[in-house]
């Protein structure tokens, strides 16, 4: 099971830019460190609510829904002429899919995930996607990975999650999965101890590694 943003797609900078463009007129200044430290682990709704709370903005539910829709439009525009998949992402996904069913368990919006995958011809490689809003709770709660295991028809203990953040690793481990962390977003020292294995690139995630982690 793959997380998406920060694992397969180098899309976090685009998410950050979208938030910056939306909140800038409200006097909110978000930088990369603040985003990674504070907001990266949330889905869109959670991020909007947390940012609003942190900066003293009062946003009604309807306003948050409108802002989420605006963020999706901005992200789509940013993605219109760029391939954001990490080097090796397509090869890694296809190699593992030749051995096991693979899926995505993400806090990103389904439309955004599918938009990025369609542009690379990779969408049919994944058996299914669990996206934001499709479980009662999002990461770091275990719900996305529990739902993914349910859709696979196997116990969580039979699955391996590939994650890039502490929030995602907590979600997967609490659900009972074994974990591989990749240092796309956070340095090795922040992930060591939170995952069964830490790797530097997708090229390292081979059939042999997944078998060893899942053993």
Radius of gyration: 17 Å
Give the H and E element order: HHHHHEHEHEHEHEH
Low-confidence stretches: none
Give the averaged pLDDT, no decimals.
92
N- to C-terminal separation?
16 Å
Q: Provide the β-strand percentage band.
A: 5-15%
Biggest sheet descriptor: 3 strands, parallel
Shape call = globular
What does this protein structure show overall?
The chain is mainly alpha-helical. Helices cover 47% and strands 8% of the residues. The chain has helices at 12-23, 32-39, 44-54, 61-79, 89-97, 110-118, 143-152, 166-175, 188-191, 207-214; strands at 103-105, 128-130, 160-163, 178-182, 197-199. The strands form 2 sheets. Strands 3-4-5 form a 3-stranded parallel beta sheet. The protein has a two-stranded parallel ribbon with strand order 1-2. Helix 9 links the parallel strand 4 and strand 5 (197-199). Helix 3 crosses helix 4 (61-79) and helix 4 (61-79) packs parallel to helix 6. It is globular. The two termini are 16 Å apart. 38% of the residues are buried.
Give a quick set of tags describing it.
3-stranded parallel sheet; 10 helices; 215 residues; 8% strand; mainly alpha; 47% helix; two-stranded parallel sheet; 5 strands
Summed up, what is this model?
With 215 residues, the chain is mainly alpha-helical.
